[in-house]
Design goal:
Number of strands: 0
Mean pLDDT: 79
Number of helices: 1
Radius of gyration: 24 Å
Order of helices and strands: H
Helix content: over 70%
Largest sheet: none
Low-confidence stretches: none
Strand content: under 5%
Shape: rod-shaped
Length: about 55
């Protein structure tokens, strides 16, 4: 019985690890999306500010 548990134990640990890796990857993807959206929004404000300064 111990040998069976030893064989099964590592596979259970890797399954848990891969699940947490998936969560981490999704968090990284969401963070990159947020960063891209922020840069896009800032670009819009920067362009409008330059336009206002040109008029001034």
């Amino acid at each position: 019985m111990d040998k069976l548990q030893q064989v099964l134990s590592p596979s259970n640990k890797t399954a848990k690890t891969s699940g947490s890796n998936k969560k981490r990857k999704w968090r990284e993807i969401e963070q990159l999306k947020d960063q891209y959206q922020l840069e896009k929004d800032l670009k819009v404000f920067e362009d409008s500010l330059e336009h206002m300064l040109d008029e001034f």
